[in-house]
């Protein structure tokens, strides 16, 4: 037998063995961290105060020391979902410890107070069981509520409710002088306004109070096929006033699937069947949707299919496949039904396990790999989509509309776009200029940063950011309130600015424009 064939068989067997080993650990770890069978449902205010006191002591000892180093959280970077990681070695690290519980569910007030380390997947499991949910639920189970507020958060209900931070009614924050403050519309409003998207550069969030809405049992999901970006955007626009959830996936320049969702309590069998999309043997959600696209293309004159998806499974529909990133970890098996029957129960891979394994090799092996979201006004979306098709050719593309408002954190929304739809286009994969050609991602990211700057758009700050400080301050509005709040609240000495924390320059990544132009 050819040596190559033997080697390939050997590598495949090794890979399956490794998958079984890690998958087994993962199943147990997921159960312990998301279901938490050995700990209670919440901690209550007394225990919460004890935890905050411990953090406060650390901040006080920084304040009483030489203050030469700036502060950041001590959370290991491999635990973070964000792609761009801060090098924390030069920082004074504050351990937020086990601030990861529900503090209080107040059904009368329709609010839930949670600690910042709580994963969104754990929170939805608790709330949905009690018949409640949050207005905006980001999909990946392992995103923490603190990271989503200090970072960014947007989801398929954002065309109704705005960004994740807009569901917060009150924030408890530990300031650099050791003071614990409550901020909301009524008190410390300047802080409440500056905390979203501040990347931990104002203070340490210790609790967040969210408004809750009533949960129902299912999401009635209405799948619509269309074959141009213009029609896809038209569908999104028309559906935005009628549906609770909207999301699109573009599989190519001619294949778009738009999903409209509404919460319902019962399945209407005359309209469609129940589909438990996250059951262990089911393919990743985007692959199930792709099969629906094919069915809709076959049907020709009927461009609609309806399914009923259990609510919790809908919320975390992209967790198992990490959108479509899992196909890069499992290139041979990700689309195999037999593989899913045998090993589907091992998904989703917990971010702690993924981070621990993939982080050391990510920067070395994946120079050309791209994970980034660009958000532009609805009227500029077709232009962005076509530009990305030409320059990146990464498919699928995630499409998610969000409504803007004046309280959208640091987003510098021009007046003419206030209360309008912006569309998030997410690109996760290898850019291919020509088929098979792999390019360095940096010049391409730079190209789209400039595109966003010219077109009133934004890029996700959770991934690489190559902008100069001036460009950064043009894209995001940190000038009108953030710098002022930092100065007035003595944050300058305690924390770097957002730019100095997350930009490529701050992380010593290459940012050479001339090189970028040559390669683009
Ligand atoms: C694969 C992938 C999928 C994603 N999917 C989604 C999605 O579905 N929806 C969505 O909205 N976004 C998504 N994102 C983006 C994501 O929202 C951001 O990366 C988010 O900030 C990550 O949260 P985290 O819990 O990992 O926080 P971290 O990355 O650990 O933290 C983010 C920032 O918040 C700060 N921070 C954290 N806790 C505190 C605290 N208690 N006090 C002060 N500062 C704090 C940290 O210092 C850091 O600067 C995705 C990103 C990736 C890479």
From TrEMBL:
GO CC terms: membrane; peroxisome
Gene3D superfamilies found in the cross-reference section: 3.30.465.10
Any one biological process term the GO annotation gives: steroid metabolic process
Top-level taxon: Eukaryota
Pfam families: FAD_binding_4 (PF01565)
Transmembrane domains' residue ranges: 6-29
GO molecular function per UniProt: Delta24(24-1) sterol reductase activity; Delta24-sterol reductase activity; FAD binding
Protein name according to UniProt: Delta(24)-sterol reductase
Annotated compartments: Membrane; Peroxisome
InterPro entries: Diminuto-like, FAD-bd_PCMH, FAD-bd_PCMH-like_sf, FAD-bd_PCMH_sub2, Oxid_FAD_bind_N
FAD-binding PCMH-type domain boundaries: 38-215
Membrane topology of this protein: Single-pass membrane protein
Main location: membrane
Catalytic activity: 5alpha-cholest-8-en-3beta-ol + NADP(+) = zymosterol + NADPH + H(+); lanosterol + NADPH + H(+) = 24,25-dihydrolanosterol + NADP(+)
Organismal lineage: Eukaryota, Metazoa, Ecdysozoa, Arthropoda, Hexapoda
Protein's UniProt keywords contain Chaperone: no
EC number(s) per entry: 1.3.1.72
Keywords tagged on the record: Membrane, Oxidoreductase, Peroxisome, Transmembrane, Transmembrane helix
